[in-house]
Specification:
Order of helices and strands of chain A: EHEHEEEHHHHHHEEHEEEEEEEHH
Radius of gyration of chain B: 28 Å
CATH topology of the largest domain in chain A: Uridine Diphospho-n-acetylenolpyruvylglucosamine Reductase, domain 3
Number of domains of chain B: 3
Number of helices of chain B: 21
CATH architecture of the largest domain in chain A: 2-Layer Sandwich
Largest sheet of chain B: 7 strands, mixed
Distance between the termini of chain A: 46 Å
Bound molecules: flavin-adenine dinucleotide
CATH architecture of the largest domain in chain B: 2-Layer Sandwich
Helix content of chain B: 25-40%
Largest interface: A-B, 23 and 31 residues
Oligomer: heterodimer
Structural class of chain B: alpha+beta
Chain lengths: 272, 790
């Protein structure tokens, strides 16, 4: 429960962070809110030699109107998301999901960029990004690139971000008036989801599942059912094509069952 | 105005809330060395080699000592103590602070690193390489009972003892032979991890010239610890001082003599340097003792109307790897309560203790009594269903004294209950819960096939606390008494010092004791300082556990105050030239009856006792009195709790809709503190019913050692509780008080599970193991709907 020794640097800009990552290579890790990374370090599951603290880069903390989308700085905290009026209107699912993360202390420190970069299939915000059909802007030594949410999560705790890249911005298409629902099932209010389901209706319905595979995932089968006008019945296939983890809270059979129930409820919520 | 009975705010809280509380970890000593523990990663294995070379070379490392090196240093003269050898032939394998050749549970210490910093010690401990030759692990009590492997390789069996309490075997057999109704049920009391907010920690500070050592420890029991350190290490008791500074909760987990405590004291003495250690949360889960761990079988014999004729109980209790301070005694503490609040003509209890390769068990809030209360209260519901009467009715038909007031009543488990009055207590709880309304709503939902079903659970519990009459403890072969000591001192300025031998770790003794003393002495509570938790300040005491503080320690304080007032009266009579018999004492003033202008405040007498200019002939100066109170009997608080749950049949989620508790702890000194104790206690029992369980794999590894996986509920998970009280004073002490610290935990797990089973009863469900997790509940419903197949 005590991390191994490490060096610590503060980066005052994204470029400074990129330079530090380039210098130290694999040995360096970015530190944002620290609410995923530090627990890993305390269990000594992560033992970075250098921590590059980007949490003080105030330039990376913003929620801006980008015309057809919202542009959110990577260092924006969950708390800032859940209290943003702009988000409440234009990206109501993300706005709500942010309020469902952990407890108030976690939400005051944890950042959207950190949560996405961590790529935990059990986290809430990746599902919101997927259901919104958003994208992630990453900056590296050779410049910026924009990665679609569907290409972003590549495996267990793995993303399309390279070791020398920093997430700078998250883009969410405006979705005012689109029906949405989020169902999170856990045993205590502060916990990660045992299973979660994010639903966005609209022209191209999107459904993302939490903790139903090795990475945050969309569910094509349910989406097809919804697109075909199946309504809540589309939920009946929510357990198919999933590979849920097994742990003390739930085995795979129960998780698949929960996925069906929660997707059904999410669709009902979105349609209400 | 009297202070007793008012909900005074706790004087302890402001300091704690602003972070001024000094916990062990806040105390810093120049030159201190930190211990880093190398802990076994195997549940059962022979140590084949330990390579300490890398650790020894690490930065800031003073030394690395393996178990066998420590043993050779001759630091101790005896293994860690078990103060409760429940039978003469109890098996008690030697338990030294560190393993020597064989490890018996994951987390057992195999070597100790001493280093300049905590991080340095932990880092170096990681570098110690231990090779093991694995042995078969006894990873559950079920396996221990089967006996295919033994937890200690030198043992032939895992059984540690057999303890019977069967006052009249023939009567018991007859009761079952003639019973119209019988119930037999098996319950599992899963292991629980006591998660006090402050982890344990120790700091031993030697004084090499003087030869004394002071141990600061996050302990509930500084006095007991002092005696036990002397007995274990051979250091003279007079050279040992134990201080429990601010202690952030214990729940029994700080009622022990732990390896780290002995290591810190002996290494500090040996090295002439302060030695310390603070456990991490995960370390706590492996190494600090756990609670519960029992398999229970309870049988009821009743007549056709559900009137109990006999109760027969057998418990298999998981000791874990070793006997800690009172490990084997925990099931015995419960044994007397398996007949609950009921009039049962015949009773028998047997218990077998077994060793496993798991962390040792010991007292955890309620210690044996929650288990007992759970078994009888769950079984009563099963009986009610079988007879076809309501759970309230089956209880009413069986209450001791017919539900009417009684006092000093002998029950078949051989105890004498001080006082009880169960009928009105149940009435009040049912009224507050709107029981009739709930039942109507339950029927409505059942008939409508609602996906959210209601369950209503009730419990009437009784508990035995106020530990304890020393003779009774002697009868149970416990290694100490149950008295408590108090000193009360009226200072020259009219302020008072109350010295208490009972050691608070969150209960608010300073507030409560000042309320008692204020009324007795006729001074303001603010003018009273309560001293405690340091064996140099309060040399006599038996500390805090078993809901004993008020019913034993508080009563001692009241009695010491009475003695101070009596002496003051003699002085007042002398100085006012009146007969003591003619003096009245009210609101802190002695006055001569009939002539009210002749009066002296007790403060003036305190000053006079200090100057000693004008005392009665032969009287010693000063106003200071002591009392050691040994209670004539235990106290038996009781109450009725009614819990309502809503079960979401689609997910299996159990939501607590309401919780009503009507408790009776006799007279109350501070109702707000009683309320706080009940809230916390209730949630701890609810936690067992719905969330908490130490889960082990087949190799004896703890699967959920962190607060991420071991689910301690928070305020968000529990409804706002409705509490009320009936007041039936105890006959065991002058204050008429009973304990309240464990009552909530003793009642609530059964209340919740009775509600869960009630909700599922339309599916033919008669029992479910704790914790009632969503997955378990869903699967039960799912299997019932599908005719048993999943
Ligand atoms: C008690 C507790 C409860 C929680 N409950 C939940 C919950 O219910 N739901 C949930 O979704 N989450 C939960 N979390 C996790 C929380 O939301 C984390 O804050 C979040 O997942 C990570 O964000 P962070 O800013 O803290 O990132 P950090 O922990 O600082 O970093 C996480 C990872 O992302 C990398 N990283 C960070 N920022 C960037 C960047 N800009 N570019 C590239 N890489 C980056 C880091 O190097 C690291 O590998 C909980 C955490 C705790 C401690």
């Amino acid at each position: 429960m005590i991390p191994a020794a490490f060096d610590y640097q503060v980066a005052d800009s994204a470029d400074a962070a990129i330079a530090a990552l380039t210098e130290h290579g694999d040995d360096a890790k970015l530190l944002a809110g620290g609410h995923s990374l530090i627990p890993l370090m305390r269990f000594r599951l992560a033992t970075p030699g250098v921590l590059v603290d980007i949490s003080r880069i105030s330039d990376l903390s913003y929620i801006n109107d980008g015309g057809d989308h919202l542009a959110i700085g990577a260092m924006t905290t969950h708390r800032a998301l859940e209290t943003s009026k702009l988000l409440a209107t234009e990206a109501p699912l993300l706005h709500h999901v942010a309020s469902q993360v952990g407890d108030p202390q976690v939400r005051h420190r944890g950042t959207l960029g950190g949560s996405l970069a961590h790529g935990d299939p059990a986290s809430d915000l990746p599902a919101a990004l997927l259901a919104h059909g958003g994208s992630v802007v990453a900056k590296g030594p050779s410049g910026e690139r924009e990665i679609a949410a569907t290409d972003f999560f590549t495996g267990f705790l793995e993303t399309a971000i390279d070791g020398d890249e920093v997430i700078t911005e998250i883009r969410i298409p405006k979705a005012a008036g689109v029906g949405w629902g989020y169902q999170k099932f856990n045993r205590r209010a502060q916990d990660w989801a045992i299973v979660g389901a994010a639903v966005m209706l609209g022209d191209e319905p999107k459904v993302a599942l939490v903790n139903m595979g090795s990475s945050p995932m969309r569910h094509a089968g349910v989406e097809a059912g919804l697109a075909g006008g199946g309504g809540s019945d589309a939920a009946s296939v929510a357990g198919d094509d999933t590979d849920p983890p097994e742990d003390l809270n739930a085995d795979a059979e129960y998780r698949k069952h929960l996925a069906r129930v929660l997707v059904g409820r999410g669709i009902a919520e979105a349609s209400a | 105005m009297t202070a007793v009975g008012t909900p005074m705010k706790r004087r302890e809280d402001p300091q704690l809330l602003v972070g001024e509380g000094k916990y062990v970890d806040d105390i810093q000593v120049v030159g201190q060395l930190w211990m880093g523990m190398v802990r076994s990663t195997m549940a059962h294995a022979r140590i084949t080699s330990i390579d300490t070379s890398a650790a020894e070379g690490a930065d800031g490392v003073h030394s690395v000592l393996t178990g066998s090196q420590l043993q050779e240093m001759g630091l101790w003269i005896a293994p860690l103590p078990c103060a409760w050898p429940v039978t003469e032939d109890m098996v008690n394998p030697p338990h030294y602070p560190t393993a020597i050749d064989e490890v018996h549970h994951v987390g057992e210490i195999v070597a100790v690193v001493l280093a300049d910093s905590r991080y340095g010690a932990v880092d170096a401990a990681e570098q110690v390489i231990v090779d093991y030759e694995p042995l078969d692990a006894v990873a559950s009590i079920g396996l221990a009972r089967d006996g295919s492997a033994t937890a200690h390789s030198e043992h032939e069996t895992n059984k540690a003892f057999h303890w019977p309490l069967v006052p009249d075997p023939d009567a018991l057999d007859a009761a079952f032979a003639n019973a119209a109704q019988t119930v037999k049920a098996n319950f599992v009391q899963q292991r629980l991890i006591p998660a006090a907010m402050e982890p344990r920690g120790v700091l031993a500070v030697p004084s090499p010239m003087g030869g004394d050592v002071t141990l600061y420890s996050a302990t509930q029991v500084p006095h007991i610890l002092k005696v036990m350190i002397a007995a274990t290490t051979g250091i003279a008791e007079s050279k040992i001082r134990v201080v429990a500074p601010a202690v952030g909760g214990g729940f029994g987990a700080k009622l022990n003599v732990n390896p780290d405590e002995i290591l810190a004291v002996t290494l500090a003495n040996k090295l002439g340097r302060a030695v310390r250690w603070t456990e991490s949360r995960t370390e706590a889960a492996f190494s600090t003792h756990q609670g519960r761990g029992q398999l229970q079988t309870i049988e009821l014999a009743a007549d056709a109307d559900g009137k109990l004729q006999g109760v027969r109980v057998h418990v298999d209790a998981d000791m874990g790897a070793y006997m800690m301070l009172i490990t084997p005694g925990v099931p015995l503490l419960g044994s007397f309560l398996y007949t609950g609040v009921y009039d049962v003509p015949a009773f028998g209890f047997t218990c077998d203790g077994y060793f496993t390769n798991l962390t040792p068990t010991d007292a955890y809030r309620g210690a044996g009594r929650p288990e007992a209360s759970y078994a009888i209260e769950r079984a009563m519901d099963i009986l009610a269903a079988q007879v076809g009467i309501g759970p309230d009715e089956v209880r009413r038909r069986n209450y001791l004294g017919g539900g009417d007031y009684f006092e000093n009543l002998e029950v078949p488990s051989t105890l004498v209950f001080d006082s009880g009055h169960y009928g009105p207590n149940l009435d009040r709880a049912l009224e507050l819960a709107n029981y009739e309304g709930l039942k109507t709503e339950q029927v409505r939902r059942r008939e409508a096939g609602d996906s959210k079903q209601l369950g209503i659970g009730m419990v009437t519990y009784v508990e035995i606390c106020g530990l304890a009459p020393s003779r009774a403890l002697g009868g149970l072969n416990y290694g100490a008494g149950g008295w408590e000591h108090a000193t009360v001192r009226l200072l020259p300025t009219g302020k008072a010092e109350v010295v208490s031998g009972s050691t608070p770790h969150g209960q608010g003794h300073e507030t409560t004791w000042s309320q008692i003393a204020a009324d007795k002495l006729g001074i303001q509570p603010e003018d009273i300082t309560v001293l405690h938790s340091d064996t140099a300040i309060s040399p006599l005491g038996l500390d805090t556990y078993g809901s004993r503080s008020l019913a034993v320690g508080g009563v001692a304080i009241a009695a010491a105050c009475d003695k101070v007032v009596e002496k003051a009266k003699q002085i007042a009579a002398h100085q006012m030239e009146a007969s003591a018999d003619d003096l009245e004492f009210a609101e802190g003033v002695f006055s001569v009856s009939g002539s009210p202008d002749q009066a002296m405040p007790i403060q003036a007498i305190a000053f006079g006792a200090f100057t000693a200019h004008d005392l009665p002939d032969g009287m010693e100066p000063n106003l200071q009195e002591q009392v050691t109170f040994d209670p004539p009997n235990f106290v038996f608080p009781f109450g009725t709790h009614v819990c309502t749950v809503e079960i979401d049949e689609d997910t299996g989620e159990v939501e607590l809709l309401s919780y009503v508790a009507v408790d009776d702890c006799g007279n109350q000194i501070n109702p707000m503190i009683v309320e706080g104790q009940l809230h916390g206690g209730i949630v701890q029992g609810v936690a067992q019913a719905l969330w908490e369980e130490a889960c082990y794999d087949e190799d004896g590894n703890l699967a959920n050692p962190s607060m991420m996986d071991y689910l301690v509920p928070s305020a968000a998970e529990v409804p706002s509780m409705v509490t009320d009280y009936t007041v039936t004073p105890s006959t065991s002490n002058s204050l008429g008080v009973k304990g309240a610290g464990e009552a909530g935990t003793i009642s609530s797990a059964a209340a919740v599970m009775n509600a869960v089973v009630d909700a599922l009863s339309p599916y033919g469900v008669v029992d479910m193991d704790m914790p009632a997790t969503p997955q378990r509940v869903w699967r039960t419903i799912h299997e019932a709907k599908n005719g048993g197949a999943s």
